[in-house]
Write a structure and sequence with these properties.
binds zinc ion, 219 residues, 5 strands
């Protein structure tokens, strides 16, 4: 019988690292795939590699920097000043249009070559900062599209879809990796690992979640 294998779309951030350890619990063999998409903080890929090493999963990086060049956003373009608050209309300019569409499509082709049919991604609709490609409807729709595109039966798993940040910390704790996630991952839009810069939108979300979780734990 085929081994149950999963491929995690892995950035080395809090969410995808939690998903990596979630996948390790649910699948017999786990691989991680990271993307260079023109992000200003390309060192996140090196941190991702290090986490994958500690998790003892295979790790590969794919260069898809054309994604960052396609649409203007503050994560890939140094001349765009990053939004710290959500604007009245539209989403934060940290939104990289098409990112999850490309990542998951490429991951599916990559997985198919390796006879892997389970894809895992750390997107969450609960704290999705207004990013449309983190919503459940998009992931379900893409899952159908990928299956039709390649005549395959992929399952896209989204363990964090309905969790808020505090619940994501709780899951990391339950998986025994709270400290690793807190210390080794990079979520900060300013490229500072661990607890980060403290004021970018990603840091705020991460810290508020952690504080809420630790408080609930000590009650
Ligand atoms: Zn930050």
């Amino acid at each position: 019988m085929n081994k149950k294998r999963a491929l995690v779309v892995f950035s080395g951030g809090q969410d995808s690292t939690t998903c990596l350890f979630w996948a390790k619990r649910h699948f017999e063999e786990v691989s991680a795939l990271s993307f260079l998409y023109g992000q200003k903080h390309a060192k996140e890929v090196e941190l991702a590699r290090e986490i994958a090493r500690k998790a003892e999963v295979s790790f590969e990086v794919m260069d898809v920097s054309f994604i960052g060049a396609l649409g203007r956003n503050s994560l890939t373009d140094p001349s765009v000043r990053m939004d710290e608050e959500k604007p009245e209309e539209g989403c934060l300019n940290t939104f990289v249009p098409g990112r999850n569409l490309f990542f998951l499509s490429i991951a599916a082709v990559y997985a198919r070559e390796r006879d892997i049919h389970h894809l895992v991604t750390g997107v969450s609709q609960t704290d999705f900062s207004g990013y449309p490609d983190c919503r459940d409807a998009f992931i379900k729709s893409l899952n159908v599209t990928l299956n039709l595109a390649m005549d395959e039966q992929f399952s896209i798993h989204t363990p964090l879809m309905w969790l808020d940040k505090a619940e994501t910390w709780a899951l990391a704790d339950e998986l025994g990796v709270l400290e690793l996630v807190r210390r080794d991952t990079l979520t900060c839009y300013n490229g500072i690992p661990g607890d980060g810069c403290g004021h970018c939108p990603a840091c705020k979300l991460r810290r508020e979640g952690l504080e809420k979780y630790l408080k609930s734990k000590n009650l």
